[in-house]
Amino acid sequence: VKFAASLAAIAVALALQTTLASLVIRGTAALDLVLIVVVYLSLISGPVGGVLIGSAAGLAQDALASGIIGIGGLAKTVVGFVAGFLGTQFILTAPLSRFVVFFITTLLHAAIFMGLYTLLEVRHFDSPWGPMMSQAVGNGFLGVVGAQLVELLPGLRDRRKARRPARP
Amino acid sequence: MGGPGCHVVAARSGRGTPPTRGCRARGPAMARPYCSLNMATVQLSQRPLLVLAGAVVLHVILISAQVSTTAGIPFIQVVTFGIFSEVQRGTMTGVDSARSLWTGYVDLRDAQAENEKLKRELQSLQVRLQEERAQAQRAENFRQLLELRERAGVETVASEIIAGPADPEFRNMTIDKGSLDGVARDMAVLSPAGIVGRVILSSPRAARVQMLIDRNAAAGAMIERTRVQGLVVGQSATLRMDYVPGTADVKQGDLVVTSGIDKIYPKGFLIGSVESLSRGAGSFHEITVRPSVDFSRLEEVLVVTTPPPAITAQQIANEAEAIAAQQRRQAQVAQNGTPSNASPRNASPQGTAPRAVPPAAPPSRNATPPANATPCAPGPGAEPL
Asked: Per the CB 3.0–4.6 Å rule, which of B62, B65, B159, B248 could disulfide with B177?
């Protein structure tokens, strides 16, 4: 059930990513929603789950993109592993710590992704530091907000249930 | 969150029981595969690095399958080919090493037999080569003998040496021609290099030849350059020229030829060359002559079957006059210290080379040498011819 929910979350993230891509301004502040989902799910499922989730999400994203299938998957696999490892080693429930994790994993993902493309001489990236940093910051904020929302939703539902008057 | 697998399974079951209990609850038929799957999951969950490595490898393979090199070849093919080429190289290296080792062993086994075979072939070829060389040498000897026969102007019989000396002290040899071939005693024996000796014993089909280097052999000789006469006597290895006056013009390296005075050897044939000379105790030179003939390598010789031409009375008179003039000149030199003529050859009345012929009749072969050292007979230490 948890794995299916994770796949559903990835599918939603992919759908949002593809629909919100038009909102990205010149591509400089692109947000990677799939990456945010992968990092969050890895934090709560551990390194093995992170590897599996990252691989699935990355491959799916690569399949929908026009690049080489596997590069994004490899990058998200590593990111999932790192996030899962950090989640098992540290208590990462505070917003700031989560922001740092999102920030770092985004940079790690960009480094692997761009590095592999550059290494294979398939794509050239001109001055990638600006987009990388902006994406890392954006992913951090969005990841923190999204994680808080996701974790608040079950409690909100329970509280609503608790406020309802009991039927006679 | 990422706990051990058994805990996860137990938590998911919601019963708080260990996985093994849950497995038992499902019944014995389903228990084993389910438990095995659960155990594998648990083991993989406990090894995240292994999972990561597997995922990375799969992604790399997937990426490599899509990436092409600059040559247009898929990257995975290049990598696979590179890896397998190294494997093939290593395999081939091992196979080559084993093959070379085996072939080396087989070759080593065959090498001995081949070596023996080659040795036999080499020996056979060496024998054939020696035969060829011997035949070539014999042909060369015959050619020289033929030339000598034509040059000598005398009747000769070619013969082959069939035996050497029976005693090292006696320098003689046996030839394959005898009285049936016209070979008789006191006939001169020649070789292309010069005088060999004389026949001392003749049988119908063989003859014994006394070499000139034998201690009992002697021959009338003269210095070719100055025509000074003397007597050559054998010394077993070299020759000694006796009865050459101390005032005679003799130099080292002068050629010594037969004078013909002995009635055995024809005149003008080479005997040897002056190897060394010194003033003896008396009034004669002590001259050592190196034979021109290598007696150790003789194979074929010519036997002169015709005697030397008889010396006419006029020739004897001329020779006597020449000798007398030479003796007068030598006496004058002994008294005044300066010769009247530079060369004895110029003192010849006819302007020809003087011949050391005794003033009297030609000496017999066994005659005793006169006191004035006329070389008509062997000197001391040498038996008469």
From this structure: B159
Give the pair of three-digit tokens for residue B190: 């020649």
Judged by CB atoms closer than 8 Å, whether chains meet at B63 and A84 is answered as: no
Q: Which residues of chain B have pLDDT under 50?
A: 1-27, 338-385
Q: Dig out the tokens for B127 from the structure.
A: 């024998």
A23 Cβ contact list (under 8 Å, min separation 6) = none
Half-sphere exposure of residue B147: CA atoms within 13 angstroms, side-chain side? 10
Supply the pTM of this predicted model: 0.40
What does the pLDDT look like over A13-63, one tens digit per residue? 887 777 665 555 445 456 888 899 999 999 998 999 999 999 999 988 888
pLDDT by residue (tens digit) across B54-78? 888 888 888 877 777 666 766 666 6
SS3 content of chain A, % helix, strand, coil (to 5): 80, 0, 20
Q: Residue B36 corresponds to which tokens in the numbers above?
A: 């095995």
Residue entry with tokens 């394959």: B176
Q: Give CA angle at B345 (B341, B349), nearest 5°.
A: 85
What residues in A contact B45, CB-CB < 8 Å?
46, 48
Tokens of B259: 């004078």
The closest CB to that of A70, out of B44, B51, B62, belongs to B62
Q: What is the pLDDT of residue A39?
A: 94
- A10 touches A2 (CB < 8 A): no
Tokens of A144: 């923190």
**Spatial separation of the C-alpha atoms in residues A135 and A108, rounded to whole Å:** 12
Asked if residues B384 and B378 have their Cβ atoms less than 8 Å apart, the reply is yes
CB interface of A with B, residues 109-168, below 8 Å: 116, 120-122
CA angle B160, B162, B165 (to 5 degrees): 120
Collect all residues of chain A within an 8 Å Cβ-Cβ radius of residue B56: 74, 77-78
Indicate the SS3 state at residue B199: strand
